[in-house]
Amino acid sequence: GSTLQAAAAETGRYFGTAIAANRLSDTTYSTIANREFNMITAENEMKMDATEPSQNQFNYSSGDRIVSWARQNGKQVRGHALAWHSQQPGWMQNMSGTALRNAMLNHVTQVATHYRGQIHSWDVVNEAFADGGSGGRRDSNLQRTGNDWIEAAFRAARAADPAAKLCYNDYNTDNWSHAKTQGVYNMVRDFKSRGVPIDCVGFQAHFNSGNPVPSNYDTTLRNFAALGVDVQITELDIEGSGSSQAQQYQGVVQACLSVARCTGITVWGVRDSDSWRASGTPLLFDGSGNKKAAYTSVLNALNAG
Ligand code: G3I
């Protein structure tokens, strides 16, 4: 294949990007996005603060713009994210207990119902595990409603949109030897054994010099897949430049291609200038929209698979 989406499709996988609704009018941006990618994630527009700015008053305008652009151009959509400790609307941030639990479940139900039938995979719960060596849950207002809040969110999402794949999504879960990776693995194993509806695990894959692409990445992906879930690289970006960055991108693609249930890769933005890492160059296209060495290494790795 001569584009990322075409090359990934040859092995039955997708290749996606995060899209920001307010950049779609930039034709350099939308031309690259349309040509290279066939899976779209809303970078911010489907988050809790965007979709429910006031309690029980939902605003889908920006999320709908992204879904409609994706559908017009024949692309699928990953939903991001139904429940998260961060990017909560102000009214939710100080809630607790049963009121918060019910508000969270109502949010999951309403948003998943609005987008029912249009979402390939939902990040139902995002970033619920703690950093560091504990392997346990992150403290948050949602966690303080009870340890079962994650499975309650997954059950609500399944009821609202039975066709969407339901994912748990997190960062720094790439290295198999990290406690956080093990914590998520144990939760997914428990969910599968008890019939909690989970279909996939997303690995955000935000890499930098302090958090490099691990040499055991394929082991991590394979071990999760062996639990009976699909795995996806959901927010890939890698700090750096030139051949070092290109090689690390190649390693991520090769790890995914080595696992049958690694069904797709999404990069977290189009050009370096679109990245949330404002001062970095972590993506596949430079600020002018030119293909970087990292682009070529990803395309070649996909074609070699
Ligand atoms: O659009 C408003 C603008 O109107 C306002 O004036 C300005 C002032 O703060 O904020 C603008 O919103 C910002 C938004 O990005 C759009 O640029 C928010 O402040 C800013 O917080 C938000 O950052 C996003 C971040 O998530 C928020 O948590 C990044 O774009 C987005 O790339 C990033 O994505 C996350 C994933 O959702 C989860 N995994 C990690 C990943 C990277 O942090």
UniProtKB/TrEMBL annotation:
The active site is at E235 (nucleophile). Residues 1-301 form the GH10 domain. It catalyses: Endohydrolysis of (1->4)-beta-D-xylosidic linkages in xylans. The keyword Lyase does not apply. The keyword Repeat does not apply. It comes from the Bacteria. Keywords: Carbohydrate metabolism, Glycosidase, Hydrolase, Polysaccharide degradation, Signal, Xylan degradation. Its EC number is 3.2.1.8. Belongs to the glycosyl hydrolase 10 (cellulase F) family. This is Beta-xylanase. It comes from Cellulomonas fengjieae. The chain holds residues 36 to 340 of 469 of the full protein.
